[in-house]
Amino acid sequence: MVPYPPKAGLLNRSYNIIRELSEIYDIDLYCLNQENLITPYFDSFEQGLTKAKDELSKYCSSLYIEPDPVRVSSFSKMILTFKSLFSTKPYSTEWLNRKSFANQIKAIRDSQDYDYIYVDSISLISNVESQRYTHEKLILGHHNIESEMIRRRSERTKNLLLKFIFYIEYLKLKRLERIASLEFDRQIVCSAEDSELLGISTGYRDHFVVPNGFDFRLLDGFCRAPKLNHLLFIGTMDWYPNVDAVRYFLNEVWPNLKQQRPEVIIDVIGSKPPADLVELSKSDPSVKIRGFVQDIEPYLAQASVFVCPIRDGGGTKLKLIEAFAHKIPCVVDPISCEGIKVDDRHVKFAQNPDAFVEGIKALLDNRKMADQMSERAYQIAEAQYSYKVIADVFSQSLESMETEECVA
Question: Which UniProt keywords apply (predicted)?
Answer without folding.
Answer: Transferase
